[in-house]
Amino acid sequence: MKNETSVPNAITPEEFQEFLNELQLVEVRIRACECTWLVEPFDVPDSQTFEFGHGSQIISASEREAVVSSFFGATVHSGGKTEIARLVVDYWVRYMCPREMDEAIFEQFRRLSLRLHTVPFAREWIHEQSSRMGLRPILIPLALSHPAAVPPRKKASMRTDSGTSTEVHSQSVAAQPSGRKRKA
Q1: 105: number of CA atoms within 13 Å, CB side?
Q2: Which tops the pLDDT comparison, 52 or 147?
Q3: Packing angle of the helix pair 103-112, 114-132 (nearest 10 deg)
Q4: Distance CA 123, CA 125 (A)
Q5: Is 137 in contact with 130 (CB distance < 8 Å)?
Q6: What is the CA radius of gyration of the chain?
Q7: Which of 57, 59, 109, 145 has the greatest number of CB atoms lying within 10 Å of its CB?
Q8: Phi, psi of 155, deg, nearest 5
């Protein structure tokens, strides 16, 4: 009996390269974002660890255009245990495509290319918002921008507001001191 929810048929590297050669990024927009304190915002401990996550899904695809959601999050922990804050941003990215971005193309695109387009935006947003919240400025590790640079990670499931389930990858990183000393 064949599994109805099997992985889409893969495309050849040549077909994927041909698709990428004609793909054009049109625009990147924030669809939703949220910064949430889970404790009193003035009780921020010096010892912080961060957990990062990301995921993506096709919002719409036609013969010549695709809209993709790419979301990122950072959870701040106190001493590695208690969650103290969460930052989440969801970007919608619009592309002009040489052909419809079907599930097989999207699977390759999601793994190999999408984060190269969206990590810089998410990295800047999370850095800026964490600083405005009074946290240590958080930098998403550049390793999240390309799968070859990502160490082994945990997989989790995240529900989107459309009710569909999306694979989310996360990794934990200890906060590094900024290296700057404040003058008294």
Answers
A1: 19
A2: 52
A3: 50
A4: 6
A5: yes
A6: 18
A7: 109
A8: -110, 140
Which pLDDT score, from 0 to 100, does residue 80 have?
A: 62
* Calculated CA dihedral for residues 32, 95, 151, 132, nearest 10 degrees: -30
Query: Amino acid identity, residue 74?
Result: A
- Residue 130: pLDDT band (50, 70, 90) is very high
User: How long, in residues, is the chain?
Assistant: 184
Structure tokens at 126: 């999370």
Predicted TM-score (pTM) of this structure: 0.75
Encode 71-137 in three state secondary structure.
EEEEEEEECCCEEEEEEEEEEEEEEECCCCCCHHHHHHHHHHCHHHHHHHHHHHHHHHHHHHCCCCC
Residue in the structure block whose two tokens are 């810089």: 120
